[in-house]
Amino acid sequence: MTKFFVGLYNYFERHKVLFYLSLSVCILFMALFAAQVRFEENVTSFFPDTKDSQNAINVFENLKIKDKIMIMLSGKDGVADADSLIEAAETIKQDLQQQAEGTLIKEIFSKADENLINSVGDFVYDNLPLFLSDEAYQRLDTLLTAGNIAALMQKNYSNLISPAGFALKNYIMRDPLGLGSQTLKHLQDFQLEANYELINEHIFSRDGSTLLMFITPVFNTGSTGKNDKLIRLIENELQKAEKEHPQLVAEYFGGPSVGVYNARQIKKDTLVTSSIALIIIIVFISLVFKHKKSIPLIITPVLFGALFALCLIYFIKGGISAIAVGAGSAVMGIALSYSIHMLAHQNHVSSVQQLIKEIAYPLTVGSFTTIGAFFSLLFTCSNLLRDFGLFASLALIGTTLFCLVYLPHFLKGQAHVKQGAVLRFIEKLNAYPYEKNKGLVGGILVLTIICLFTSQNVRFNEDMMSLNYEPAHLKQSENKLAELFDKKEKTVLFVSTGKDMGDATGQYAETNRLLAQLKEKGKIKDYASAGQFLIPEEVQEARLKQWHNYWTPEKKARLRETIRTEAARYHFREHAFEPFFQWLDRPFQPLDYQNEITTRLLNEWQTSADSLTMLITQVRMNETDKEAVYPLFQPKEKVVIFDRGYFASQWVSAVNQDFYLILYISSFLIFFALWISYGRIELTLMSFLPMLVSWIIIVGLMGMLGIEFNIINIILSTFIFGIGDDFSIFIMDGLQNKYRTGRQLLNSHKTAIFFSAFTTVIGMGTLVFARHPALQSISLISILGMIAVVLVAYTLQPILFRFFITAPASKGLPPYTLTGLARTGGLFLLFFIGCLFLRLLIAVMTLLPIRKAYKKQVLCQLIHVTCKSLIHIATFVHKERINRTGETFKKPAILIANHQSFIDILVLLALTPKLVMVTNHWVWHSPFFGAIIRYADFYYVGDGYELYVERMRQKVKEGYSIAIFPEGTRTYDGRMKRFHKGAFYLSEKLQLDIIPVILYGNCKIIAKAQPFNVRKGIMLTEILPRIPANDATYGTTYQERTKNISARMKKEYARICREQSTTDNPVFYENLVQNYIYKGPVEEWYIRIKVKMEDNYRLFNQLVPVKGQITDIGCGFGPLCYMLSQLSEEREITGIDYDEDKIAVAQQGWLRTPHLQFVYANALEYPLPESDAFILNDILHYMNYEHQRTLLLRCMEQLRPEGKLIVRDGNAANTRKHRLTRFTELLSTGIFSFNKTTEQLCFTSEAQIRSIAQEGGMQLEILPNDRYTSNTIYIFQKNKPEHE
């Protein structure tokens, strides 16, 4: 990928017109479509859009009652004159209607509608059969008896002759029997309790102190921009009224007013804080970079990214939440860091191409993982969060592309330019090795441990209302409303929904039925509904049928006769009740809910919008009862409880669950991307761990400071996680580059990280001056988060990288791997279990009445079995035992062995159960197995051999041999050290034979310098012939025997080393692979595959001399050089290559010794050393024929007598196999650009090679080298007969 961006840069540099044309077209194209994106301000985009919540969203959008604004007019000091309040109210209403009715105000409700009150009776009687239940018909049966009719006629007569008779006349004529009286009483169900009263048809509070007006805006609460004008208008009118009526107090409150003031405060806070941040950042950047173009160059990629995102959003979905774009601007802090990285790093490179090479990889990986973190928001159930994630992801993609494609053309390498004092100071600050500051590292460690516990205290604040900004005058108005109406209980709306009125009324009836049961149980105080008048269609039809069946012609005739008879007794006119009989005969129809009277009567109880009908029930209940009541309605999809606090907490709870989903998905994506990028899970964990520790510290500090998570700052945590991920990747890139090539990029990356963190902290930190609670909550967590992320990235990653990778490599040891640590942990665990078992056994045996000698014999047997089992379990080790004399160890002897590793002890104890050892201090006092060996009668060398001679003699009589390491301690490099005389002294004193044991390979499995890294290898044990005590061959005194037997063992060890120094030894392959791990997945897998295909370079090892100067031209990463060096330490090897990067990688191997060097040079020009062998392995075809000839002749000139020139290359004459050879090389150089070439590939033929050999006076041997390709080995040699 790096080569792609470098190639693109070079192409555009050669075609400047095309560069500016492509940039202009891109910007114009994106701007054209970005301008057409719809920006939506709907606050309900916050809510989850799951199937269960869709109804709630629709209700929230369309419920009119939530958007009302209430105006309260009262007198000062509680003194109120109703007439003056009514006068002021009428003036305010008139002025508001003149200025805003139809544009901003839909309706103003200030007094009862007299016409509506008069129409209610008509509505009831026009639809009376629909309102009669079964109980009502039982009442009718009672009313229609002759006696009851007579009583009612007498009552009607009395009412008519009373003072109110004139008003009651029409009602009596229409319904002389009071058939509809009970239904009229149900109108009282429309109110919960009489918490208001009417004065001159105007609505007042119950105490008469406050007049109330209700404004229904045209726009809903979420349309803050449009409602802002309305709120200003209302405030102006109320101020005007207070001036005209000095004793008047005019206040207002409502959802739209809170929304408007929140929007105002957010805009004000954002403007102020952004201005402060922008000024600080501009001044800072100007001081640091001292270049007029710096600020535009930093900001332009961000603007390009935003345009890129909006352009793609137009094609993806056409519109986006304006809130999401606003929140997405926070992501610009990450986007800024990309351009800052580019600008900061140009001061450390000599060319733009080098800048791209060094920045492209970490920038691409970092942006990909951050994009993945934001992309995970697309899996949440909130449309707003999805929009935020989409915008943030696309913006970062656009910014990254601009930084890598277009930005480099405006930069230049400035390594030679002297930097300003501020930049030099910042770079010096970042060059400080924070990981070596023990106080800082210890402080972070202690803080992390503390934060692990304090993080448990952090809670999630589900009360979204607490994030609202509410000015003092609105808070005062809200409190006044609570005093006037709510008291202890709270009114909650239960909204029954349906696709039409018929569907909704069925659910409405079910809701009211359940509420009636809850009222009986005392779970709610009361409820009010229009349930008596909002009736399901099937119920209406049934009631109409029941009415028709009830009023048979006979019953009507009988009733008519009875009423006339009784009416005549009170002198009513004969046809006085004819309207009643006509009404009784009329055909009734189902309710018409579109009727004007019906609509006005039920206006506050029903709402319809977008094929959704909503019917409202008002419920008064205590706050404490909500927990019990609300869950009963949750399974009912068609019922929405409109409680702002509850609704918000439900949504926040859903987002809280989403957050963990986001965390898991983004963590997985980041982890997987890093794993693919690094090719090693160890590097992935090292990059990932700082993010985890940072998160623990952030949450822990929140717990200490009492900061709660809320819906705003938990989203911000995604941002911190993303930028922390970037920091980790850049730190890892710096560390890996130093290990891989020796290039120092870490300080440059740390400087860029500092700039990025600084701009982010300033940008977010200035929100601490904001007055809005939500913005304030962002500032503190962002400051804490960035400080934690930077400190952890500066310390933890370098410590881990140094401990596991660079520290071992600097000592000539392989770096740790997860596999190796797992092997080590497993074996040490088994060893510990074995020791624990033996110690328990000793404890048990001390209680048994058995001879102590027998107990010790049993223990030695078990020690033998345990050691043998541990060696057997280590299946990754190739085990070999050579015992040419068939030694059985039945006859006691002194076993002496070279000491390379801790496992030497296990190897010797596994030879025979009848064995005790002489141990050094750390073994004797080991907390794990010290007690075991002391009980088994092992001996401590520190006490002196003289002290133990007699005890040892007794042990020998029991048949035990004694094992001693004459070197006294383990060696670091496997070479035998000087032997001490103790073993030979004991042999003389006890007259015991000596059995020399040679141990090989153990130091490669567990090295003394790296005891906790168990590696693959060979465990070879060779038991040499027994040396009798009286054998004078090695001398007659123990001093002479020490010297001579030591020389014999060193000679035998050297022999074994030579025998094992072959390509069949798996240790060399493992070492070679581990020499290239952590240097990139390409390098590691290239070495794994290449060396396997080359059969561990078996043929080359056979062809080149064991001793002498070997020169490998075109050595690449140097695997052949390293393999040949491992197989013989007497070879002086020089690797030459013209690929600077490959030579840099080769030079940084932990296997490198003073006998091995790598040179970056063109072999055609470099003064070649005089050599015993030259190797040209697969490189000739990268140069033209003339250059090939020149190079071969130069090598021949520098070849020592009897030296060899070994060439391997494709034979163009072998046309059948050569196609595959050419194809693989085209892949290597053209497609993957793995091998560097400046010329066309030029393969030679066998004839051409013979011609050059003849010209150089060399004899040539030819060996076909591949079954499938045309690769051929040519061996040029002096003074050798030619073999065909």
Tally of contiguous helical segments:
47
Q: Please identify the oligomeric state.
A: single chain
The profile of the biggest β sheet is: 7 strands, mixed
Q: Distance between termini?
A: 47 Å
Low-confidence segments:
none
Side by side, the strands of the main sheet go 14-20-19-15-18-16-17
Radius of gyration: 47 Å
Shape: elongated
Instruction: Name the structural class.
Output: alpha/beta
Overall number of strands: 27
Query: DSSP strand (E) fraction?
Result: 5-15%
Rounded mean pLDDT score: 83
Helix content: 55-70%
Description:
The protein has 1284 residues and is α/β, with parallel strands linked by helices. The chain is 57% helix and 12% strand. It contains 47 helices and 27 strands. A seven-stranded mixed beta sheet has the order 14-20-19-15-18-16-17, sandwiched between helices. The longest helix has 38 residues, at 773-810. It is elongated and about 160 Å long. The model has no long low-confidence stretch (mean pLDDT 83).
